[in-house]
Amino acid sequence: MHTVQERALLLEALSDKVLHRLPPAIWKGLFLGEERDSIRFEQRHLTLVHAEFRAAVDDGSAVGFHQAVQALNTRHNGRLDPYQDNAALVTFENPGAAVRMAIELQRSAVHTSLRIGVVSGVCTLAYFRVHGRLWCTPLGDQPERAAAVAATASGGGILISPETYGPNEGRLNLHVDADAPEFADSELDLSTLALEREAVDIPC
Q: Global pTM?
């Protein structure tokens, strides 16, 4: 179990991360409403793929990039975080699946300077329920480390951290809330939640 102080810091980190990615009504219900009670945290050994690109021209290739990430995420059973400008983050339990996804994404890139970083390590996951569905998103150093590794890759290249092909004996729950849900039960594409919008009445 986390201490009260640890949980408060994790809640703050989660709030900061999703504040500008979720519609205001969803954020308010999650942190100020009844859905706040659904938030749980877990430490787990995972593999993260961070992909970022720069288009040669503003030709709409960002749409194609995100569509490719969504399709490959589904194919390889990763969990896609909301889009981060011209980047995407996908979380995997299986490092082999992460590497295969990264290679297929690299091959699908057209007219873009794509950089991909793959890292493995202990990652803090935040779970929460919105509209009756379970979501999870990574927090802490590992997402930042994945972005830093991607930034050092050559244009069009993939940089894989050495521990990604290391032994598997550490791939266990390390620190988990007693009633945290199973990682496998969470939705695979958090970006669908980020794209939801409140209904707007347009006067005639």
A: 0.84
